[in-house]
Amino acid sequence: MYRSNPKCRAALSAAGLLAMSTVSEAEVYDLSNVGVVQDLAARVPAEIRERGVLVSGSDNAYAPWEYLSGDDGQTPVGIDIDIGRAIARTLDLEFESRTAAFPSILPALGSMYDIGLNAFSITNERMSVVNFVSYSDTQSLWVVRSGNPTGFDPGDYCGTTVAIMPGTYYETNIVADSEACVAAGKPAVEMLPFSAQTEAITRVAVGGADATATGGGTAAYAVARSGGRLENLVPVGAMSRRGLNGIAITKSDDELTQLIADTLNHLIDTGVYGEIFEMWGVTHFAVDEALINPETPF
């Protein structure tokens, strides 16, 4: 079931997203050592070249991958933003990350956005409608309050309250687990939907949900910035498997897909990619090669 409580939403606002503390100073990778590669730049589609900007869709609410920061609190920063900036610089383009609701991004590829750079988990269902270029390893983690006061058990969480972000891989798995609970005669999982993962994590931090599940990088980042309020739990079952995140491109544009893959592999080979991941403290999620539509267990 899904339920949203307006009073709790007000509490979230007052809490100031304590689980994902606002970064006072935007962290940005220095692109001074990233040069234009003419052979790659020459392959930029005419429409993008004329515009001069590589446009990406992102919810910009999934730190450390992408989130809004800076003096105005509206400047996109994060791993994905730096990867996008480096790709654009290599192609002699500017980079723009447009903030959008997560579920709306993939359907708008090719019309509103050139690419989707939002830590998308690569799944077979998604690959049936868009192309992906893999750029990071990924794993799932649960986030609970420190000490796990509600006794949340990743192996049996029937009847618990879980904060979720609709349209994600995690929602799909939690729905399946909830259906299995009901089939076994146990209470369903109560799912509280939030448009941003920061809100879901904050709901857990203020005691409005037992847990939330998200990508390992985001889950660990939330714990590190929670001031001891949160901790991680390792999933069991389907969500315990590791997979890949990918940059999404419309299914109808194989040339742009290949160009993004070739550009990203250039950044891997030159060490720029590794430096970005090192700066953000996520080297354990780095990959050796960017692949187009890789095999996935999901």
Automatic annotation (TrEMBL):
<keyword id="KW-0732">Signal</keyword>
<dbReference type="InterPro" id="IPR001638">
    <property type="entry name" value="Solute-binding_3/MltF_N"/>
</dbReference>
<dbReference type="Pfam" id="PF00497">
    <property type="entry name" value="SBP_bac_3"/>
</dbReference>
<feature type="signal peptide">
    <location>
        <begin position="1"/>
        <end position="26"/>
    </location>
</feature>
<protein>
    <submittedName>
        <fullName>Transporter substrate-binding domain-containing protein</fullName>
    </submittedName>
</protein>
<feature type="domain" description="Solute-binding protein family 3/N-terminal">
    <location>
        <begin position="53"/>
        <end position="284"/>
    </location>
</feature>
